[in-house]
Amino acid sequence: MTSEADTLWEDRDVRFDISSQQMKMRAGEILIDCLDSIEDTKGNNGDKGRLLVTNLRIIWHSIALPRVNLSVGYNCFVNITTRMANSKLRGQTEALYILTRCNATRFEFIFTNVVPGSPRLFSSVIAVHRAYETSKMYRDLKLRCALIQNKQLRLLPKEQVYDKINGVWNLSSDQGNLGTFFITNVRIVWHANMNDSFNVSIPFLQIRSVRIRDSRFGLALVIESSQMTGGYVLGFKIDPAEKLQETAKEISTLHKVYSMNPIFGVDYEMEEKPQRLEDLTVEQVQDDVEIESDEHTDAFVQQDREPVFSEELGLAIEKLKEGFTLQGLWEVMG
Q1: How many CB atoms lie within 10 A of CB 107?
Q2: Can you point out the beta strands (E) in the chain?
Q3: Distance CA 249, CA 230 (A)
Q4: How far is CA 154 from each of CA 32, 150, 214, rounded to the nearest angstrom?
Q5: Core vs surface per residue 195-217: b (16+ CB within 10 A) or e
Q6: 323: which residues sit within 8 A by CB, 6+ positions away?
């Protein structure tokens, strides 16, 4: 039996040229923002692409060749900053630099917004990564944390307590420690009654199995954590036996419900809702339109301007834009 965490790679891996299946959102993964006209300046300089920002990772793919893509999980981020970069599409411009580490290998990514004057690339990625970093209690097994306040569980955002069970013995020591269980929609928390700081928080994401086994203390509830956490085996004794069976069934049921739609805890909403991913992953034909920077203006772009009398031509013409002369236009045409 495997836990959700053991199959979860999206936030913990850096992958290149992934399949369309791997680009799809997994259960619990949410598309937060979609940014068009983003260049992967380091890996695919000059190639316009799209950047998808989810609650687990960023995905970039080329618009001309969607199979040219990359997926970078937030757990791999080492540093994220903005500084100047040289883009083939924008020239010298501010870019998003992301330094990552995955399986002892370092990768650097540089993303540039081809459309000038839009800070959304920076604000979206930086804000969502921060939301990921500050919500690890949803995803990581934690020992001896500040979980309890006035004998009550300090709830995470969107967390609900489904059950509180007194008289639960933690069997990690020779004598056992008497404590209390909190069962919520995202995790199981146990703390010792005599010492609140002696505790454990086990997210459903990290639970590999829930069983009742025989122990030297009699029948016990045994929770095995994911390989990613080191494969902890945690034993708890609950009396009477009926309550033990009832608790094991409750945790197993909640674990199954959670696994169908995991809550990763990365809570960030854009003011503008992004399109559905299905609408974005259709192969698109590359257009031939080149985006020019604001500094260059085409003198021949048609705009309605008031007519003025030209002494040079002896007739009424549209007023020229500031900085342009008739002589200059004739030279361009020549």
Answers
A1: 17
A2: 14-16, 31-40, 48-54, 57-62, 69-73, 77-87, 91-102, 105-113, 142-143, 148-149, 152-153, 161-170, 177-184, 187-192, 199-203, 207-215, 218-225, 233-238, 307-310, 315-318
A3: 25
A4: 27, 9, 32
A5: ebebbbbbbbbbbbebebeeeee
A6: none
pLDDT of residue 201: 97
201: Cα separation from own chain's centroid: 22
- Hey, is 330 helix, strand or coil? helix
Residue 182's nearest CA partner among 169, 191, 173 is 191
Tell me how far the alpha carbon of residue 197 is from its chain's centroid: 31
The pair phi, psi for residue 262, each rounded to 5°, is -60, 145
pLDDT for residue 287: 40
pLDDT at residue 320, as a whole number? 62
What pLDDT, on the 0 to 100 scale, is given for residue 282? 41
Whole-number pLDDT of residue 73: 98
SS3 readout for 64-130 = CCCCCEEEEEHHHEEEEEEEEEEECCCEEEEEEEEEEEECCEEEEEEEEECCCCCCHHHHHHHHHHH
How far apart are the C-alpha atoms of 113 and 75, rounded to whole Å? 24
Quick check: helix, strand or coil at residue 48?
Answer: strand
Largest CA distance in the chain: 108
Residues of the chain under the 70 pLDDT cut: 1, 271-334
Query: Cβ contacts of residue 292 below 8 Å, gap of 6+?
Result: 298
For residue 284, what pLDDT is reported?
39
CB neighbour list of residue 291: distance below 8 Å, 6 or more residues apart? 37, 89, 114, 115
C-alpha dihedral (274, 276, 277, 280), degrees to nearest 10: -80
